Amino acid sequence: MNIISAQQEGNETVFVQQRNSFVQIEYSDMAEQMLSRSDVLHIRKDDEVYVLGDDALNFANIFNQETRRPMSQGILSSDEKSAIPMMKLIIEQVVGSPEYPGEKLYFSSPADPIDSDLSTLYHQKTIQSFLDDMGYDAEPINEGMAVIYSDLADNDFTGLGISFGAGMTNVCLSYYAVPVMKFSVARGGDWVDEQAATATGTSVDKVTSIKEDDFELDFETDVGGVEGALSIYYENLLDYVIEKVTEEVDEEDIEEGLDVPVVVTGGTSSPAGFTKLFKQHLEDADIPFSISDVRHADEPMYSVSRGALVSARSDEEERRGASGGVDESEADDGVDVDAEELEAHDDD
User: Fold this and answer.
1) What pLDDT sits at residue 222?
2) 340: how many CB neighbours lie within 10 A of its CB?
3) DSSP string covering 259-294, please?
4) Which residue range forms the structural domain that includes residue 155?
5) What does the pLDDT read at residue 347?
6) Which residues contact 276 (CB under 8 A, 6 or more apart)?
7) Does any domain span residue 346?
8) Which helix (H) or strand (E) holds 252?
9) How confident is the model at residue 220 (pLDDT cuts 50, 70, 90)?
């Protein structure tokens, strides 16, 4: 749902974000002038104008259209003919030019889903090619592992990280920064929105806007409304993800003596009440290892991109050690390219 980058500037981490969407409107000289004056991200192609990023959702709601997405189900959309040029433009806006040739950049990539035939390889290699062509030394990082790097440093990078993105939900179990288990499921925030839209006869974009506007998982809303439908499908999503975690743990034969924290993150985890509900459902699950605590990332939208940044900075430190130092102006980047994680980015 969102493309997010993280870059270190002095003692601060700076995030840049754009929505992974665009809408097509008819070209006119007046329309293009107004868009340019308002700093709306757009491009013209023949007799059409494409409004991209954060402004696309506003335009879609005004003109009663559905936004189009360069990404679908967590990866580049095979059904959208404009996916690649739109994706390139959004990434260029979010990442910018490298500080120097070959600057290290890690970008998040989802694991192959265990409940779908989708392959993430084409998506991963295409995004890597975009970034390399921009002058970066780009390298993928598993989205779930990025969550571990971002939010479990205080536990020696040991624990279960779950990134609830738009297209997919990514899961990684790590032991001292070594991934023991990593996978994704082909359900996330988009699935919740689509199901709620179908159930209530509401447009998907309208459902998304309601979800992002102070929606709470309190189960006290009208069951017949959009918020009631969102609550129902959120609960179903949590049950589904926990079921798949249990199945994968059993299949991987994870040691029962483990006692680890769980961190949940990603844009889909943002509604108030999400972590409490997830914890309740997790307590009812038959997971063969102990859960020490369940925590919500402080900034769930930014966890994945922050974790990618941690990896980039670690690589730069190793390179400084190997080369005897590099220019102090050199910086490091991380980009969440899933959505919601591409979710660097979730965050991811």
Assistant:
1) 63
2) 35
3) EEEEEEESGGG-SBTHHHHHHHHHHTS--SSEEEEE
4) 2-20+69-336
5) 45
6) 217
7) no
8) helix 226-252
9) low
